[in-house]
């Protein structure tokens, strides 16, 4: 089976590309394209809101048509 690349962990980039949803659970927030985690082509991002708490829980890549066709 094909193994996916781990999400990047370079904290020096403009956006942190992972988020901790609960203690010990880190999930990628960029797009999985070709087995690699990459930012959206135009750099777009949007907030994910927990409806129960009305709090932002993550900032994720906003994929476009260009990203889908890549």
Description of the structure:
The protein is mainly β. Helices cover 7% and strands 40% of the residues. The chain has one helix at 65-69; strands at 18-22, 25-28, 31-33, 36-38, 45-50, 55-61. The strands form three sheets. Strands 1-2 form a two-stranded antiparallel sheet. Strands 3-4 form a two-stranded antiparallel sheet. A hairpin with a 2-residue loop joins strand 3 (31-33) and strand 4 (36-38). The protein is flat, with a radius of gyration of 13 Å. The protein starts with 17 loop residues before the first strand and ends with a helix. The mean pLDDT is 79.
Descriptive key words:
single chain, 70 residues, mainly beta, two-stranded antiparallel sheet
Q: Layout of helices and strands, plus pairs?
A:
Layout: E1 18-22, E2 25-28, E3 31-33, E4 36-38, E5 45-50, E6 55-61, H1 65-69
Antiparallel strand pairs: 1-2, 3-4, 5-6
What would a concise description of this structure say?
Helices cover 7% and strands 40% of the residues. The chain has 70 residues and is mainly beta.
Query: H/E order of the elements?
Result: EEEEEEH
If you average the pLDDT, what whole number results?
79
Radius of gyration: 13 Å
Across the major sheet, the strand order is: 1-2
Q: Helix amount, in percent?
A: under 10%
Q: Using the alpha-carbon principal axes, give the shape.
A: flat
What's the count of strands?
6
| β-sheet strand percentage | 35-45%
Largest sheet: 2 strands, antiparallel
Low-confidence runs of at least 5 consecutive residues: none
Terminal-residue CA separation? 22 Å
**Helical segment count:** 1
Find the structural class using helix and strand composition: mainly beta
């Amino acid at each position: 089976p094909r193994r996916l690349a781990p999400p990047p962990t370079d904290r020096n980039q403009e956006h942190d590309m992972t988020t901790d949803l609960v203690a010990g659970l880190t999930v990628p927030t960029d797009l999985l394209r070709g087995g690699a985690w990459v930012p959206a082509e135009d750099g777009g991002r949007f907030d994910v809101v927990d409806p129960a708490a009305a709090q932002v829980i993550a900032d994720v890549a906003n994929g476009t048509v260009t990203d889908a066709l890549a």
